# Entry
Amino acid sequence: MGHPAVSPSGAERLCPAGRSPQPPTRGSQLKLISALKRCVAAGAVILAAVSLQPTSASAAAPPVVGGTRAAQGEFPFMVRLSMGCGGALYAKDIVLTAAHCVSGSGNNTGITATAGVVDLNSSSAIKVRSTKVLQAPGYNGTGKDWALIKLAQPINLPTLKIAETTAYNSGTFTVAGWGAAREGGAQQRYLLKAQVPFVPDSTCRQAYDELVPSEEICAGYNEGGVDTCQGDSGGPMFRKDNAGVWTQVGIVSWGYGCARAGYPGVYTEVSTFAAAIKSAAANL
# Structure
């Protein structure tokens, strides 16, 4: 998953704002990811996106690689945020997104949530302004990458329930977003979707020394080719529970590049923070 800084109000992988640095390679440059994530504190915006890029530079690069366009109404809980991040309807008037997508907690009327469409240019799009933001308490750029955005009015669409235990932190997940279809590419007009398999912490730590296993969950193919990327940060990673209901297990957070072999996407582990999210939402 790639991450670019977009504006002082959001953040995921671009730093400084407006620039999308090349992700670090393993070795001494690994520590650069901390600096990138901490750019949020400096007012940068880190964003991640559903990356559907080819596995090699010589591969063809059609508009969507590794994923497909979502159908209208397929994921009605998906939300696009004006700072360039994704999110999901936790409640009809609350969006769950990534902490690095916002600049802190408090009253905030500067974010617009777009919902109800797969085509962001559709005249049917529902657009609602924010009123408040709550960034995860204690967030400092490492772990705890979640935030809630209160909306000025409810959006009458289905919400996405969150995982409250680790029971669904395995198998194959779905990711969706309007982010770049290739590393360094432009964000998309249409909602894209893809599936990514769970990656054990032990395997993920071989790629990322700074992984926080108790707070983060990894997913992706070892050979690369499918991932989240610039512009998908804050969006949900989800799967169906035993009753067939979509359940959010992750929040797009960070990673090296987009769909690179050996570098899975890193997601906030929602079940770890479920109680805190529920409490915060009740008091937002």
Q: What stands out?
A: The helical segments are 32-38, 201-207, 270-282. The two ends are 30 Å apart (CA to CA). The CA atoms of residues 83 and 106 lie 17 Å apart. The longest helix spans residues 270-282.
